[in-house]
Structure formats: C-alpha cells, structure tokens
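Bug report

Summary: structure tokens for Transcriptional regulator differ between web form and batch submission.
Environment: batch mode, default settings.
Steps: 1) Submit the sequence below via batch. 2) Compare with the web form result.

Sequence submitted:
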Amino acid sequence: MKKHIEDKLIDKNTKPTSMRILVYDFLSSQEVALSLSEIEDYFENADRTTIYRTLKTFEEKGIVHSIQENTTTKYRLCDDDCDEKTHKDWHLHFYCKICKQTTCKEDISFPSNIKTNFRIDEVRLFAKGICESCLENLQ
C-alpha cells in the first residue's frame, strides 16, 4: 500500500515523506471531508504545522481539494486527473446541518466540457441541507 501512495505522490511531483504518506493514506480511507483539527486529532502526536503544510502542498499539487464552510476549511482527496493548474472536482460539496458532515456529491456536477475562450481552473459548488441518512432518521 505504501508503494502505491509513494507512486501517486511522485506522479504529482510531490516528495513522498513519511507524514505525506500517512496523511494521504488516512484521507483515502475517509468518506467525508475533514478539517485540519479532525485530521490532527487522528495524528495526535504529530505537529499541527507539519499537517497543515502537508495539506497545503497537497492542495497546490492537485492531490486534495479544499471546501470552505463558513470559517472552516475541510479537505478531501481529488480525482486522479487534478493537477497543479486545474482542480477538476467540479461537483457539489454538501454540508449536513444535522450530522455536520461534508460529503462530495459527484452525481451533481458542473459540466467540464463547456466550450469557452477562457480557462476555468476551479469551480466551487456548495450546498447546505440534510443528508440522506439524517433525513431518513427524521421520518
């Protein structure tokens, strides 16, 4: 598994340090977007600054995309076709007001094949509401 992650990081022009491998591995096992604090809680003995720098490097290299929720930034792994110039995560980011989780709704997306005479580097689609699980529990 580590070799696979190392190869992914190298493909994104990112040196595969121990912390970067650990953070990538952790994020790849998550179904929801996570804040710096949530990631830091998982790595209780790691330096917060190191984790933050890892996430910023990942964002710059097209490895993660950030989702801004009010005053909190959350992170989720990108699709493989994102790169340093263009994040292609053109899908809806959905925040549930009940369970407080942010998920990527890839079935709701901005079309990426629009013909323009300009380059779109990033699209941010964000919605708040009640997720499927919480809505089911309300009934």
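Above is the batch result. After comparison, the two runs are identical; trailing whitespace caused the diff. DSSP finds five helices and six strands in the chain. The longest strand covers residues 102-109.
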